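Deliverable D5.2: sample structural annotation.
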Amino acid sequence: MKSIVLTNIFAMFFLINCIAQIPKVKQGTIKQYPNFATQYIKPRNVDVWLPNGYTKEKKYPVLYMNDGQMLFDTSINWNKSSWHVDEIVTKLINENKIKEIIVVAIWNTGPERHSDYCPQKPYEKSTADEKVMLKNSVRKNGASVFNNYEIKSDYYLKFIVEELKPFIDKNYSTLTRKENTFIAGSSMGGLISLYAICEYPEVFGNAACLSTHWPVIFTMENNPMPNLIFNYLKEKLPDTKSHRIYMDYGDLTLDAMYPPFQPKVNEIMTEKGYSENNWVNKYFKGEDHSEKAWSKRLHVPLEFLLAK
């Protein structure tokens, strides 16, 4: 477990110090909106990826993705790794396996990543003592930048729903209804994607949550967050008739924390009426917590959620 925490510390450190650049893509085209203006959270870069042959004569579904700087270009990331989203999406489109889509990549801002992505309403259900413990854990295992740790995920989602999505729909040829609006991410990015579809079921019809970081912090000792999140899901999971959710997990590095949670997650999803028609939860034995691992299996949620 110590090595898992240290790996995460180094990852956060380098994310914080990542130099903003416009990603280079091998397929499609990309436009960056630096420091996208917002009244809710710290401004951050937003990249909009368009598929080959994009035309305003046609309308496209939109996939919003968290941790946007990690999605396309290995050269701009601290670990020289990426999801290779442009290549994977293009391959699936060319093989006629998924619909043509626009991808909106929302960068994280390093120090604020954890507070932007931690589900706010479950966190607010924790006691005062639990909040202190959670804050201290993030500070200890993250960095001193978390001294003023404050959960802002409700504001992060307001930014997406009230500011970013209207901008995208105004400036690009999009299909705007929930059945054509997707959100995805990994780790804490997977957690905020699940929170998004629960908080805004009228906006997001589909969510892909890879290696969802149920613990929120990096220890399970006296950690209330998984149960608080599960209780929230029991109340807030959206209607199965009009929503689809993909989940997965591995079992190495940070993903080693996740297998014990899956029976409870499966129980909740089943009780809420989710089935193989609208929910997938896959276990990838021997896979770790990395862009390389998520890139290898990104085609799975895309084919499930965006099948033609």
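Annotation notes: The mean pLDDT is 91. The first helix runs from residue 2 to 16.
The annotation will be released with the project's public dataset once the embargo ends.
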